[in-house]
Amino acid sequence: MHRLARQQTLEKILSASQKELDLDPTKPLFKLTYSTSPNWPYGKNKNLNNNNKTRITRIAILDSSFNPPTKAHIQLLIQSVNTITNMYSPQAQGSHEKNNLSSSFFDACLLLYATKNVDKILSSSDIGPIDRLLMMENLVEYINVDKDNDNNNNEALQNIAVGIVTHGRFINKTQALHSFFSSLKNSNNISPSNNISFYFIVGFDTIVRLFDFRYYSNLRSELSLFFESSNLICANREGFGGKEAEDAFFDSDIVKEIIGKRDAIEGGGEGEKLIRIKLDNEIAKISSTNVRKIVSEEWNKNNKNNVSYEERMERIKKSIDDMCPKPVIEYIIENELYK
Question: Which InterPro entries does the annotation name (predicted)?
Answer without folding.
Answer: Rossmann-like_a/b/a_fold
